[in-house]
């Protein structure tokens, strides 16, 4: 009865000893690398590591089809350390490893390395354990964050960014407040309500111009609620609209600035749409954009609400819902209908001008 715990203890000590030896070898190797090798290619960078850098340092392990890395940048240093250790072991005569795979699943890092070596398996497991306390996005200390259909190891900052937050009220700059702004109707699709991640974003101007993008990064199918998987994802347009988020953000900033006159966003879900749009733009707004959106269902004029609701429902009937561009278009149509029923003086009051 007593042999199992004893065996486990021995195994644990052996594993700790082996990892300690590997650590020494890796440190020794790093020191010699610093002395003999062009440092910019070989030495592990401080802080964040670019994907290209990681892959060009360990092409034999990581480049497809030999291996694959599917996780956030925050965990790249762990992958780098693991590869360094494996490389050191190979230099000491260990047979070369086979397929290497590191991927994020439900907030955890899974590492699979094809190798007969006990130490390689221990190293892989060690990397997995370390990942559980490191933000997958930035590499700072983190912990598992759970939401509906969402699991990710994140630091407090990145966890807060994933949660919906209240829209901040920012005073409107004087240069903007002097004339009636041109209105832009905003709609977004996102993964779920607990940890919304932007999937697609559309803006349609009063005058008809539109902007639309679907993001190819920053969200995953696994993070989507069942509703989104069923109703939103099948409607994505794809093609030229499928864009890397940095590119989509630059395009949006240029599009907004291009109006050249004060503009203000109208949304029926400021807590989500507006917040996600600011996120995409990294809070860098063009100077002609109002720093706060106009709530389509403004609380300041509750009597307008039924009228807006009716107009919105009518507009939605002709368009397919849950496609951001169609929904933004519906919002604009509803606005037009509402305007016809509204005295200009009331409208000005609504717009607070
Ligand atoms: Zn972080």
Automatic annotation (TrEMBL):
Molecular functions per Gene Ontology: nucleic acid binding
Matching Gene3D superfamilies: Ribonuclease H-like superfamily/Ribonuclease H
Record-linked SUPFAM superfamilies: Ribonuclease H-like (SSF53098)
Protein name in UniProt: Uncharacterized protein
Organism: Geomonas terrae
């Amino acid at each position: 009865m007593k042999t199992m715990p004893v065996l486990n203890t021995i195994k644990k000590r052996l594993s700790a000893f082996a990892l300690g030896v590997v650590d020494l070898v890796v440190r020794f190797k790093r020191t010699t690398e610093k002395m003999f090798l062009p440092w910019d290619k070989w030495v592990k960078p401080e802080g964040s590591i670019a994907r290209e850098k990681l892959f060009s340092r360990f092409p034999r392990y990581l480049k497809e089809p030999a291996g694959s890395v599917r996780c956030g940048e925050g965990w790249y240093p762990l992958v780098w350390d693991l590869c360094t250790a494996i490389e050191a072991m190979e230099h000491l005569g260990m047979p070369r490893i086979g397929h290497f795979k590191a991927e994020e699943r439900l907030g955890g890092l899974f590492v699979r390395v094809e190798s007969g070596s006990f130490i390689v398996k221990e190293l892989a497991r060690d990397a997995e354990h370390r990942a559980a306390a490191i933000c997958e996005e930035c590499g700072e200390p983190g912990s598992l964050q759970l939401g509906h259909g969402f699991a990710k190891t994140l630091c407090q900052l990145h966890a807060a960014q994933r949660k919906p937050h209240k829209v901040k009220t920012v005073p409107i700059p004087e240069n903007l407040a002097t004339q009636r702004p041109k209105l832009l109707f905003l709609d977004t699709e996102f993964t779920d309500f607990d940890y919304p991640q932007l999937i697609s974003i559309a803006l349609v101007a009063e005058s008809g111009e539109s902007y639309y993008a679907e993001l190819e990064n920053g969200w995953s199918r696994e993070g989507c609620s069942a509703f989104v998987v069923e109703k939103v994802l099948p409607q994505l347009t794809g093609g030229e609209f499928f864009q890397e988020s940095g590119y989509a953000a630059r395009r949006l900033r240029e599009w907004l600035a291009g109006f050249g006159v004060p503009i203000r966003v109208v949304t029926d879900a400021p807590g989500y749409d507006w917040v996600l749009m600011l996120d995409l733009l990294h809070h860098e707004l063009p100077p002609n954009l109002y720093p706060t959106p106009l709530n389509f269902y403004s609380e300041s004029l509750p009597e307008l609400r039924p009228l807006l609701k009716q107009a919105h429902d009518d507009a939605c009937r002709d368009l397919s819902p849950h496609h951001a561009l169609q929904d933004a278009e519906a919002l604009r149509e509803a606005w037009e209908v509402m305007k016809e029923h509204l005295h200009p003086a009331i409208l000005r009051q609504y717009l607070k001008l």
